[in-house]
Write a structure and sequence with these properties.
By secondary structure, the protein is mostly beta strands. It has one helix at residues 10-17; strands spanning 113-114, 121-124, 130-131, 134-137, 142-146, 154-156, 179-183, 188-194, 202-207.
Amino acid sequence: MVAGCSDDPAVTTDAGTDTGNPVDTGSAVDAGSAVDAGSAVDTGASTDTGASTDTGSAVDTGTGTDAGMQTDTGASTDTGASTDTGASTDTGASTDAGTAIVTINGCAPAMYVDRSAGTRTVTFGSSFTYDPRCMTITAGQTVTFTGSFGAHPLVVGAVTGDPAGTTPNPITNTNTGSSATFTFPAPGLYPYFCRFHLPGMAGVIQVR
């Protein structure tokens, strides 16, 4: 019966067969970071240089390719008022006087005497006429009427049946004195006549 206790040493024999850690080396079999180098295999920024591949402003220089105001000079190409002077190009009543093509107070278009650069005086007296009866001047100029307004009252307007002319008319009704001066600021046709001696004593100041 003592010999039955001798079976216990069998544990020592089993320890030699299973060495434990030497059989499964663990980290030695699977090197981990050694097999997959990580950043070494995929260099990241080195493979795709980003800004180096697409230089951005170097490909499209922006203001260098399209000079902007240099390509389209704006006001230099179209000077605005210089290209189209507005009232200077089309002076309205001056270029197209409207009633200038019709006869008013006996003044037909071909009858006007240009006094824009000369003496602008209308005289009247015993001949029962105005001299000149049809005068052309420039806007802003003056005209002086000389004669007896008592004998030949000056009246603003056209004779019956004629176009009225331009209004307002700077000429004023005058029946006293011997001289009267009127300023004509705007283009147009400004008729006048003698109250006592129609239709022969009538005229027009044409302003351009």
